[in-house]
Structures are given as C-alpha cells and as structure tokens.
Amino acid sequence: MEITKEQKDSELAISLKGRLDNSTAAQFEDTVKSSLGGVKSLILDFKELEYLSSAGLRIILSAQKIMNKQGSMTIRNVNDTIMEVFEMTGFADILTIE
Q1: pLDDT in tens, 7-43
Q2: Inter-helix orientation angle 54-70/25-35, to 10°
Q3: The CATH number of the domain where 72 resides is what?
Q4: Total of domains in the chain
Q5: Please, what is the average pLDDT of the chain?
Q6: Domain span at residue 22?
C-alpha cells in the first residue's frame, strides 16, 4: 500500500493506494496518529484504494473519534466495493463520505 500526505495549514489529505488490510494497517495507523496534531480537517482519499479489511475499519473509526474532538473528517472518492463495506458495517451512517 502507498500512502501520500499533503498538508495545507490545518487541513491534511491522506491518499491510499492498494489494499488496507492486516498487513498494511499498522503503517496507516502510524501515519494517521503521527499526523493529526493541529489538524482541523482530515480528508481521506480512497480513489485508488482497492480493498478494506476490518483492521482498516478500526483505524478509520479511531481517526473519526479523534477528529470529532478537534475538527472534521471526510472520506472522498470511495469506489463501489469500499462503499459496500461501509454500508454493510454501518460506517456509512457515521462517516462523512463524498
């Protein structure tokens, strides 16, 4: 999995490419947790995300809880496969998805 970060002032965009699963979840978690200081707006771009496991969902939920306290989180460019995972797990109801 490739992770790309782009920060402008208090807005952070993280783009994922590949698979977010048990083998890549720790890398994503480290990136998110080490990057959220001072961030008011977190954007997760899933344009090139091919697969999302429960380990990835856990990290997304954790990031959402942090951002609820300090700003907002938006997930963009979700493909049909990932959206189906969000809908089946109820995450579509608690996340802001554009």
Answers
A1: 999 999 999 999 999 999 999 999 999 999 999 999 9
A2: 10
A3: 3.30.750.24
A4: 1
A5: 96
A6: 2-97
